[in-house]
Amino acid sequence: MVTCYLRYVLDPYQIKAFEHYATLWIPLVEKFGGQHHGYFLPSEGANNIALAMFSFPSLSAYEQYRQDSMNDPDCMAAFKYAEDTKCILSYERSFFRPVFGKQA
What we know:
This is NIPSNAP family containing protein. The chain is of the alpha+beta class. The protein has 3 helices and 4 strands; from the N terminus they run βαββααβ.
């Protein structure tokens, strides 16, 4: 399993727009076989940083999702929404191997 960690730098005046963007992506990741662990929006501290995490069974499954999302109308609409609202200034993506507790 591989978990994708995304760190976003947001326009602090567009947090509501980013929150809408986040609600669009959660079911889309799951539609393509991923497990979304949620988005985490600014609360205390920095007012322009958000995080997201989601997992796929393997890096190749993640790569297939990325490829398939480029041809999916709902994914393309979500990409366009972020572009139109300019709620995301930049982002970085990292990958981790999760540990969820003792395995049977």
